[in-house]
Amino acid sequence: MKIVCRCQDVTEEEVVAAIRQGATTIDEIKRLVRAGMGPCQGRTCRRLVSQIISRELKKPMAEIYPPTFRPPNRPVPFALVMAEYERQAAEDRKKAEKSARPDKAAKPAKEGKHP
Ligand code: FES
After folding, report:
1. InterPro entries given for it (predicted)?
2. What confidence tens digit (pLDDT) does each residue in 7-20 have?
3. Would you say 13 and 1 are in contact if contact means Cβ atoms under 8 Å apart?
4. Is 16's C-beta closer than 6 angstroms to any atom of ligand 1?
5. 11 Cβ below 6 A of ligand 1
6. Structure pTM?
7. Ligand 1 and 48: CB distance under 6 A
8. Whose CA is closest to atom 1 on ligand 1?
9. Mean pLDDT of 70-98
């Protein structure tokens, strides 16, 4: 018994069984046996699953369709998310202030300066 996905305790036999049920992509394997759904999001097992699909379906690795990724692909500290939110909010405020200010070119010229 070889463990392929150590996050989800998925064995090579389970992956091969999923392929024999008709799975041909990494995403299909993921849906059937949960390989790639652990905390590492498949960073460790994705390549092993591709190799097994390649071997079982007798396809070159280049023809194995890559899995879909959903952000964030790795844990992101919430402070970083909030810092980005605040930066974006400050930028939006500056834009709003700039668009609310009257345009300098549109100001009427002071009296007495015209010839
Ligand atoms: S080893 Fe498969 S999801 Fe982490």
Report:
1. BFD-like_2Fe2S-bd_dom, BFD-like_2Fe2S-bd_dom_sf, G3P_Oxidase/Oxidoreductase
2. 999 999 999 999 99
3. yes
4. no
5. no
6. 0.64
7. no
8. 5
9. 90
C-alpha 80 to ligand 1 mean position (Å): 25
Q: Is residue 25 part of a domain?
A: yes
Cis peptide before 72 (omega within 30 of 0): yes
CATH number at residue 41: 1.10.10.1100
* Number of structural domains found in the chain: 1
Asked if the structure places residue 15 within a domain, the reply is yes
CA 45/CA 3 separation, integer angstroms: 9
Q: Which domain covers residue 24, as residue numbers?
A: 3-63
Q: Is 3 in the pocket of ligand 1 (CB under 6 A)?
A: no
Kindly state the DSSP code that residue 10 receives in the 8-state scheme: E
**Does 115 fall in a domain?**
no
d(CA 6, ligand 1 centre) in Å: 6
Q: To which residue do tokens 């345009």 refer?
A: 103
Domain membership flag for residue 35: yes
